Amino acid sequence: PENVSDWGKVVLAYEPVWAIGTGKTASPEQAQEVHEKLRAWLRSNVSDDVADSVRIIYGGSVTAGNCIELASQNDVDGFLVGGASLKPEFIEIINARA
Ligand SMILES: O=C(CO)COP(=O)(O)O
After folding, report:
1. If you read the UniProt record, what top EC class would you report for this enzyme, in one word (predicted)?
2. What is this model's ipTM?
3. Residue 72, CB half-sphere, CA atoms under 13 Å: how many?
4. Residues 60-86: pLDDT tens digits?
């Protein structure tokens, strides 16, 4: 932690391996559960400030069809998009948290 000067620039990604490029997406509840635990780990092991400022993003078959519900979860701060980033629907994913 002492080697990082601005945790606001650190992004942590959760990507369940079974969801990458498979068309199978974590449910919003599954993603939230893991992201919440990652943030709690940062709170216990680093600091409140870091836990609150690190962005925890989800990756794994994110589409225009599932991004709104995923983005509505408290601890889902954004996405790591693969296949859908090559399609016009990418703009909808970008705007999912707007
Ligand atoms: O691994 C990913 C991005 O690096 C996710 O890819 P997909 O969105 O195609 O599942």
Report:
1. isomerase
2. 0.94
3. 7
4. 999 999 999 999 999 999 999 999 999
Contact (CB, 8 A) for 11 and 54: yes
Which of 81, 85, 93 maximizes ligand 1 atoms within 8 Å of its Cβ, making it the mutation to test the pocket?
81
Atom of ligand 1 nearest to the CA of 59: 5
Helix (H, G, I), strand (E, B) or coil at 5: coil
Name the pLDDT band for 23 (thresholds 50, 70, 90): very high
* Cα 2 to ligand 1 centre (Å): 31
Q: Report which of 59, 3, 63 is spatially closest to residue 31, judged by C-alpha positions.
A: 59
